[in-house]
Amino acid sequence: MPDEAPNDPKPSAEDSPAKGPGNPAREQEPAAQAASEPEARAAEVIERERRGPSGEPVRSVTFAERKRMNRRELLKLVPLIAVGAVAIPAFRQPILNQGLRFSDWTAGALFGRHRLAQTYSDREVAPFEKFPYNFYDVADPGVDLEKWTLTVSGLVQRPGDYKMDQIQAFPKVVQNTRHVCVEGWDVIGNFGGTRASDFLRWIGADPSARFLEVTCVDGYYESIDMATVLHPQTLFCYEMYGKPLDRGHGAPLRLQMPTKLGYKQAKYLDSIKVTNVLLSDMRGYWEDQGYSWYGGL
Q1: What span, in angstroms and rounded, lies between the C-alpha atoms of 173 and 256?
Q2: Which helix (H) or strand (E) is 271 found in, with range?
Q3: DSSP string of 63-121?
Q4: Helix, strand, coil % (nearest 5) of the chain?
Q5: Which of these, 197, 191, 187, 268, lies nearest to 228 by C-alpha position?
Q6: CA of 259: how far to CAs of 5, 145, 255, 275, in Å?
Q7: Fewer CB atoms inside 10 Å of the end CB: C or N, the chain?
Q8: Angle of helix 63-87 relative to helix 89-110, nearest 10 degrees?
Q9: CA distances from 35 to 26, 39, 46, 195 (A)
Q10: What is the pTM of this model?
C-alpha cells in the first residue's frame, strides 16, 4: 500500500493575517507602501540634485541674491575694464586727462586757504650747500640784476613795472619749510620774502580773480590758482638762508609755496598777470607736457 501523501500544513490563526474590518492597518499596508515608493524616489532625486559632483551640498539662490551677486561681480570687473581701456591707444590719453582733471579738482576742493604747511626749527634746516640746484634749462639765464623789474598786468588797478625795493617794502616773512620735488627728493630750507597776498592787495588785484600767470627770464612759465597765491605762506621770495637769492636758486625773485610741488615754484620771475582765463597751451611748462596742473601737496 503506497504511503499516503503528506498533508500540507495549514496555517494557524496566528500566522494568517486577519481580514476584515477587525484589522484595517493590515488591509491598507500594501497600498500605502506602493504609494510611498514614488515619493521616496522623488525625494532621492531632489537630494541628489542638491549635491555637487563630490557630494557637496548645493544651496538654492534666490532672485534677490542673484541681483546682488550680479552687481558685485560687475564692480569686480570695473578695474579690469579700466585697465583694458587704458591699454587701447585711442582711449588712453582721454582717460589719463580725465584722471588728472579729477585729481586737480579734488585737490582744489580740499585745499584750505588758512591751513598752514608744517614749519621747522632752525636746527632741522638742511645746510645751504645741501639744498639742490634744480632747473629746466640753464642754472643761470643771465638776469641783469641791476635793471631787473617785475612786470604786472591783468586784472589789477596799478599795472606796470616794479623794482625790487618796491617789493621789499612790505613786511618780510621768514619761514623754514619743506621743498618737495616731483623727481623724488625733498629738503627743508630757510626762505624769506614778501607775502604774495600783501603785494597783490597793494597793486589792486581783483579779489575775485581765479589765476595768477607767471613768466620767467629763462622762458619757463606757470599758472597758479588764486587761493594758493593768497595763502599766508606763499612768498615772492628774494632771500634764502638770510642772504639774497643766488643765481642758481632763482635770483632775483622766485615763488616759494610750501603747499605746492617744486615745479610750480617758478624762478627768475619776469612778469605776473592776474586773470580769469588760462590759455589752453600755456597752463604751465610741465603741465603742458602731462603733469598735474594743481601740483598740490
Answers
A1: 11
A2: strand 269-275
A3: HHHHHHHHHHHHHHHHHHHHHHHHHSHHHHHHHHHHHHHHHHHHHHHH--TTPPPP---
A4: 35, 20, 45
A5: 197
A6: 123, 28, 12, 21
A7: N
A8: 110
A9: 15, 7, 18, 98
A10: 0.66
- Amino acid identity, residue 45? V
d(CA 222, CA 254): 12
Size (the chain), residues: 297
Grid-cell match 541681483, residue found: 67
Report the amino acid identity of residue 98: Q
Question: What is d(CA 145, CA 141) in angstroms, rounded to the nearest whole number?
Answer: 11
Residue 2 grid cell? 503506497
Q: Residues 6 or more apart from 248 whose CB is under 8 A from it? A: 133, 135, 139, 140
Q: How far apart (Å, rounded) are the C-alpha atoms in residues 82 and 197?
A: 42
Q: For every one of its 297 residues, what pLDDT tens digit does the chain have, with 9 covering 90 and above?
A: 444 444 554 444 444 444 444 454 444 555 555 556 666 666 665 555 556 555 656 555 565 655 554 555 555 555 655 555 555 665 555 545 555 555 555 555 555 667 899 999 999 999 999 999 988 888 899 999 999 999 999 999 999 999 999 999 999 999 999 999 999 999 999 999 999 999 999 999 999 999 999 999 999 999 999 999 999 999 999 999 999 999 999 999 999 999 999 999 999 999 999 999 998 888 999 999 999 999 998
255 closest CA partner among 206, 292, 295: 295
